[in-house]
Design a protein that fits this description.
about 150 residues, alpha+beta, Peptide Deformylase, 5-stranded antiparallel sheet, 3-stranded antiparallel sheet, 2 helices, 8 strands, globular, binds cobalt (II) ion
Length: about 150
């Protein structure tokens, strides 16, 4: 089900999200809704608080594939990249953000199984942006400039 995407100013976007403790049908339904919502919005990523759910769950949709990360955490971050970023919760804006070039994360899938993953380039940028959402951080907090988006 496509859910409404919360916009900046809603306090849920500023919460420190709680870890998922139950890998049950409710989590599966949340992830299914996040997928429907993210694909409909044609975004690169979506965090659960963006549909009003303050849990540590994100989805990333990039060239490398579609990924679901439950309780993700950084293992390391390396290098640096500077590039443009936007956010489905900050409509019509873009900004330049400095991010690591390469990151390693650990996470669980919807069944609770543990994995790790290395992302680089734009994939790493999307992972960093989405993990920030879980701590109530928006890219606009880090951007060097915020401007009206071109499209
Ligand atoms: Co965002």
């Amino acid at each position: 089900m496509i859910r409404e995407i919360v916009q900046v100013g809603d306090p849920v976007l500023r919460k420190k999200c709680a870890p998922v403790e139950r890998f049950d049908g409710a989590l599966g339904a949340l992830l299914d809704d996040m997928k429907d919502t993210l694909l409909d919005a044609e975004g690169a990523g979506l965090a659960a608080p963006q549909i009003g759910v303050p849990l540590r769950v994100v989805a990333v949709n990039v060239e490398e594939g579609y990924f679901e990360f439950v309780n993700p955490a950084f293992v390391w971050q390396k290098g640096e990249q500077v590039g443009a970023e936007g956010c489905l919760s900050v409509r019509g804006k873009a900004g330049t953000v400095r991010r690591p070039e390469k990151v390693k994360i650990v996470f669980r899938d919807r069944k609770g199984d543990r994995y790790s993953l290395v992302a680089r380039g734009f994939f790493a940028r999307a992972v960093c942006h989405e993990l920030d959402h879980l701590d109530g951080v928006l890219y606009t907090d880090k951007a060097e400039n915020i401007r009206d988006a071109e499209d």
